[in-house]
Amino acid sequence: MQDYDIVIGLEVHSELKTNSKVFCSCANSFGGEPNTHCCPVCVGLPGALPILNKKAVELVIKAGLTMDCEINDLAVFERKNYFYPDLAKAYQISQLVRPICIGGHIDLKDKKVRLNRIHLEEDAGKLVHSTAAIGTLIDYNRGGVPLMELVTEPDISSADEAVEFLTKLRQKLIYAGVAECKMEQGGMRCDVNVSVKKKGSSEFGQRTEMKNLNSFKSVHRAIEYEAKRQIEVLENGGQIVQETRKWDDNHGKSVTMRKKETSSDYRYFPDPDMLAVEIPREDVERIRSTLPLMPDQLKAKFMGEYGLSEYESDILTKDKVLSDYFLETLKHFDNPKEVTNWILTEILNRVKDEESFDIKITPCDLGKLLSLVAEKKVTRTNAKEMLTRIWENGEKITALEKEYGGNVDGDALKALVERIVSSNPKAVEDYRTSDTPEKVFRWFTGQVMKETRGKANAAKAEEFIRELLK
Amino acid sequence: MDIGKLSLIELSTAIRERKLSSYEVTKYYIDKCHEKAELNALLEIFDDALDKAKEMDEKIDKGFKGKLAGVPVIIKDNILYKGKIASCSSKFLENYVAQYNADVVTKMLEQGAVIIARANMDEFAMGSSTENSAFGVTKNALDPTRVPGGSSGGSACAVAAGLAPVALGTDTGGSIRQPASYNGVVGIKPTYGRVSRFGVVAFASSIEQVGPITKTVRDNAYMLEVLAGGSEHDETSLKLPVNDYLSEITGSVKGLRVGVLKEIEEAVRGLDCENSYRGAIELLKKNGGEIVEVSIPDFKLTLPCYYIIAPAEATSNLGRFDGVKYSRRSKDAKDIDEIYVKSRSEGFGREVKRRIMLGNFVLSSGYFDAYYNKAKKLQQKLIAEAKEAFKVCDVLLLPTTAGEAFKIGAKDGDPVSMYKEDLFTIMANVLGVPAISVPYGKGKAGMPLGIQLIADSLKEGLIYNVADFIEKQEVK
User: Fold this and answer.
1) Which of A47, A90, A265 minimises the CB distance to B202?
2) Nearest residue in chain A measured CA to CA from B79
3) Does B316 touch chain A (CB under 8 A)?
């Protein structure tokens, strides 16, 4: 294995986050009763014509700008002709010669992966295999959903790098508001091209393709499997055949789907129903000006402006939900370090599903909670208990504040402090003689909190204790 | 009032002014349709037409003043009218019911039209004689042993035979003008994009247009005012205001620069159309027109250019007829591949199959640059050449066809000879410019011939004016 270089290129399809489909006004939403988000255009009825959704073009431009692509000033749509039951018109409207974006790159930790292009096309419907008696049914709800296809140069050299690339890509698309990339809904799918060559050789080996991998894990496994298979074939004196292989995630292996000789000639030609799309520079600049900070930029900001560590910044920018949450909380409690600590421990420990980041306390409430701790109106321990009750039972923070907050106060608190100090003469003595009087002091505040079950006004309690210990 | 003798404009005026009811007019024409069933011009006479006419009468009583209020109209069978079959004269779509209205249908209905029938055509508009219809050939309105032309043969025959005051056709390479010429009626192919294609079953999307076929030029102009206009359903439609074409008809051709094409001089010599052609030139000259010889050097390449672009688009457009979703599916098909192959083999006629194969060939990898791309480049070159020509002339004058309508079966088994039928008409489609055919003169057997007038984009008004002038002289 170490005698070989692995060469990987990816083709990634992501469904764009538009309200309507790419060539008609049907809703672009996942699921729904079969064939209910359909019209003459997206089921390809005779006489129907496509009308381009400009928003989809804008999103692809947006995506391209986050990856330093060049934006073509003229984009052309073409027909890719092939027969398949989920393809209503027997052609897919796609782009070949003049895609919206060309070039560009995504930077990984150790390398730059060059992009070949990003283009806009339409998704196909879905086949639903039913019982033998009914046969196969077709749901065209997904037909005409806008897809961006990103094609990389063969710059990726391992399964790990492929996953790193996809993670970065997904991050960018979500941050830019281009796509939601819901893998489990097929919102992001990946075709993988793999070949191997003798280390150092400049000549590429024959490649094979695996289509429609819909999780990073299967991308990783499929690449590892395929590279190993190809090397074995070569080592045994065999030859790699150009083919499309089907990855079987259940059995952890790929099998031949179709050989090159039987693959389609797509007979691309410009779609005569559509006008070429002019993309003036001003539009590109306008779109650029609407781009939010990308994860790398945010990370730099977190480290520079907020003094967070690289580790902390990495985690916070891993997902847009999280960095948005962080920034929003800061608006209510302006201590980045403290907010980060809470998010990284208390919040993330409670998040069950890292795909959806379902955080069950609003940034506003978290900010309030941290303010209570900072103002010593509640103890840290109680604040955590409050968080649990908000998270699990949806209780109101104002009610909890009354319950936990510093409601032992004033004369009652003073009396309590006097009682504790007077009944612990040894500790008082220690305080006055010890090298570390603060330690003893904290023991006293601890006693007060223990007696009040954390409900003492901590700031006041400290004031009283200090006075009595003088 | 003799309904059959009234022009479209007269008829619509009479109905609007309540001198005639839509019901009696519609009844008159439907009776004619039944009477002349042996022409096989129509595939179906709509049984709700009389009810629609009655409804329209009520509307007109309440003050409705649409341009086509209560006027019966016939549509070609590739134009969708919701709830009615649109078969494109193909077995494949024999029972296909339109799910929505074509833009042109919507526009006509908004103006009060009563659509009474759908007209026969060459299957998927591929052909020049209506002999490619899966439902039998249409006969020429003037001689039942001759073809009516095509592909809008049913529409042209229907107007000539008096089955309706107006019919819609579609023109991809001459499919309105050639049958209009053969039947002695008027037909226009508007500027590409002038009329929305939404709801018209596509054959060659980049060059085809819907247009009216009428008995007179003025009727034609009146009808195009209804059909023209941009649509939000068709990106390629031109979002421009619609002209008042009738006001552009002045009755004079004085000072008009009439271009005659150098490149057809040889071709016309000895053809049946020669007298008509030269006569029309003389006529315009005599009446103040200035005759200028112009050149479109690549004219002879328009035919091969067309026979690459049109089949390429057709093969893709017809892919959706795959037997999966609607219409015909072979009863013998056992799996998905058989559904495709058998349904299409059984459902399509010979000419359609021929063009699908042609189209696949010119688009296939390895041939794409040599054929399709070259044809598209040639098209651009032709457009540039025409621009030059239109700098020195206002209209181009050409014969519509080489000769009069030929006998049914005369060109069987000779597709190339059939393709050459479109020699003079194809240029306007390749260029995207408007072209009209107006009857002028007779052929050897006394059948009508047409003169074709072509102008630069959007100048329909100009060719209507010249055509109207020629028409009036022809009547004299």
Assistant:
1) A47
2) A47
3) yes
Chain B within 8 Å of A51 (Cβ-Cβ)?
yes
**Using the beta-carbon criterion (under 8 Å), do A47 and B198 form an inter-chain contact?**
yes
Angstrom distance (rounded) from CA A15 to CA A147 = 4
What are chain A's domains? 4-286 (no CATH), 293-404 (no CATH), 410-469 (1.10.10)
Residue A308 is which amino acid? L
Give the pair of three-digit tokens for residue B250: 């002045």
Distance from CA of B203 to the nearest CA of A (A): 10
What is the value of pTM for the model shown? 0.90
Tell me if B30 sits within 8 A of B116, measured CB to CB. Answer: yes
**For residues B8 and B225, what is the distance between their CA atoms, to the nearest angstrom?**
13
DSSP strand pairing (A70-71 vs A269-270): unpaired
Average pLDDT, chain B: 96
State yes or no: ipTM above 0.90.
Answer: yes
Marked catalytic residue, from B22, B87, B155, B175: B175
Interchain CB distance below 8 Å, B315 and A43: no
Q: How would DSSP label each residue in A212-244?
A: EE-SHHHHHHHHHHHHHHHHHHHHTT--PPPEE
> What pLDDT does residue A446 have?
87
Looking at chain A, the whole-number percentage of residues with pLDDT higher than 70 is: 98
Closest in B80, B197, B320 to A44, CB measured: B320
Is A51 in contact with B235 (Cβ distance < 8 A)? yes
Q: How confident is the model at residue B382 (pLDDT cuts 50, 70, 90)?
A: very high
Question: pLDDT tens digits, residue range B129-175?
Answer: 999 999 999 999 999 999 999 999 999 999 999 999 999 999 999 99
Judge whether B315 is closer than 8 Å to chain A, CB to CB: yes
Task: Compute CA A378 distance to the chain's CA centroid, rounded to the nearest angstrom.
Answer: 35
pLDDT of amino acid A318: 87
Domain B3-246 sits in CATH at: 3.90.1300.10
pLDDT of the residue at A131: 82
> Residue B270: what are its φ and ψ, rounded to 5°?
85, -10
Give chain B's radius of gyration (CA, Å): 21
Condensed to tens digits (0 to 9), the pLDDT of residues B83-123 reads 999 999 999 999 999 999 999 999 999 999 999 999 999 99
Place of tokens 């007019």: B25
Indicate if B76 belongs to the active site: yes
What pLDDT, in 10s, does the model give residues A56-75?
A: 999 999 999 999 999 999 99
Question: Worst-scoring range by mean pLDDT, A201-205, B18-22, B142-146, B296-300?
Answer: A201-205
- To test the contact with chain B by mutation, choose from A267, A268, A275, A277 the residue with the greatest count of B C-beta atoms within 10 A, namely A267
**Per the CB < 8 Å rule, is B235 touching A45?**
no
* Minimal-distance CA residue of chain A relative to B314: A272
Question: What is chain A's alpha carbon radius of gyration, rounded to the nearest angstrom?
Answer: 30
Q: What are the residue boundaries of the structural domains of chain B, listed by start?
A: 3-246
Of all residues in chain A, the one with the smallest CA distance to B320 is A89
Backbone torsion region of residue B294, taken as left when φ is above 0, otherwise alpha when ψ lies between -120 and 50, otherwise beta = beta
Chain B residues near residue A46 by CB distance under 8 angstroms:
80, 86, 88, 93, 96, 201-202, 320-321
User: What is the Cα–Cα distance from B366 to B362, expressed in whole angstroms?
Assistant: 9
Touching check for B406 and chain A: CB below 8 Å?
no
Any catalytic annotation for residue B128? Answer: no
Lowest-confidence region among A267-281, B315-329, B393-407: B315-329
Residue in A40, A269, A275 nearest the CB of B99: A40
Backbone CA torsion sign across B386, B388, B391, B397:
negative
DSSP string for residues in B391-451: HH-SEEEEESSSSSPPBTTTTTT-HHHHHGGGTTTHHHHHHT--EEEEEEEE-TTS-EEEE
State pLDDT tens for residues A422-462. Answer: 888 888 888 888 888 888 888 888 888 888 777 777 788 88
